[in-house]
Design brief:
By secondary structure, the protein is mainly alpha-helical. The chain has helices at about 5-10, 15-30, 40-65, 80, 85-110, 115-130, 145-165, 170-190, 195-200, 205-230, 250-255, 265-289.
């Protein structure tokens, strides 16, 4: 039976910046539109956190029963390592996704934007079918697109809209930037897993692009947010604060660009996540000012 520590590790806490950053950036854009609300911001954050924990457990379960995680290089996988029964991990995934659904329903009810229920349903289905079902889209090279949409566009713009009732170019810029960061995290992860994914038949975008193409994609993705910072400076010069986070990526860029393999790429996931969170916080402060 898995210990509490193993369950926490199985939830992949290093991916939590992917859930926090879009809400933080969205809050900053909402403040700029005079639409900030503490209750709605907190609910949006809880929905995002529940969703990412749910998708992490769902991926653990689906990859585990397929045997994809048997030779995985990265952090602990509950099913793949055999420390937890598949049904227990499935139950954890369903509880987390169910909580995201309930909290999302409360948020929609408070905002009165009932049409957002459809977007919430798509997010939950997207979380499950990333690696779940007979033909998971994550196994066919669409994972990066989904992350960009769900943890970039939907996460940021949804946070803004449920508070301000409108969007802005600054909000869209933040959505593109956070989505690029978040996709960069997944790209670094899939770059590390190219050998084992090919062996298990998992055709991620990284396996399709190959080692060199995936490295170029990562470097492009982590550059996009800093281009956005420069563009946001036309809204407020304080947006250039986002550039302060660039040094956090130096080791990651060096590792990915220098041809690092396997476990040597694990810090790139962490550092990209931290850079994303830092960028979101500083950009939110800039927009709020």
């Amino acid at each position: 039976m898995a210990t509490a520590g193993e369950w926490i590790e199985g939830a992949r806490p290093r991916t939590l910046p992917n859930a926090v950053a879009p809400v933080v950036a969205g809050v900053g854009a909402a403040v700029a539109l005079d639409g900030f609300s503490w209750p709605r911001s907190i609910l949006a954050l809880l929905v995002s956190l529940s969703l990412i924990v749910g998708v992490n457990y769902a991926n653990d379960y689906s990859d585990g029963i397929r045997g994809t995680d048997e030779n995985r290089v990265g952090p602990l996988r509950l099913v793949g390592s055999g420390v937890a029964k598949p049904k227990a991990v499935l139950a954890a995934a369903l509880v987390a996704l169910g909580l995201a659904g309930v909290l999302g329903l409360v948020l929609v009810a408070i905002s009165g934007l009932w049409w957002l229920l459809a977007m919430g349903a798509v997010c939950i289905l997207g979380a499950w079918f990333y690696t779940g079902g007979k033909k998971p889209y994550g196994y066919y090279g669409f994972g990066e697109i989904a992350v960009f949409v769900f943890f970039g566009l939907a996460g940021v713009l949804g946070t803004v809209y449920v508070q301000a009732g409108q969007l802005s170019w600054a909000a869209l810029g933040c959505a593109v930037a956070v989505g690029s960061f978040s996709t960069g995290v997944l790209t670094a992860n899939n770059l590390r897993d190219i050998p084992t994914d090919i062996e298990s038949g998992k055709r991620t975008l990284a396996t399709r692009l190959g080692d060199g193409g995936t490295r170029r994609l990562y470097l492009t993705l982590v550059a996009v947010p800093y281009v956005v910072s420069v563009l946001l400076a036309f809204v407020t010069p304080w947006a250039l604060l986002g550039l302060v986070t660039a040094p956090l990526l130096l080791k990651s860029v060096k590792a990915v660009g220098g041809g690092a393999q396997g476990r040597a790429l694990i810090p790139a996931l962490r550092d990209t996540g931290f850079a994303m969170l830092g960028w979101a916080v500083l950009s939110a402060v800039a927009l709020a000012l």
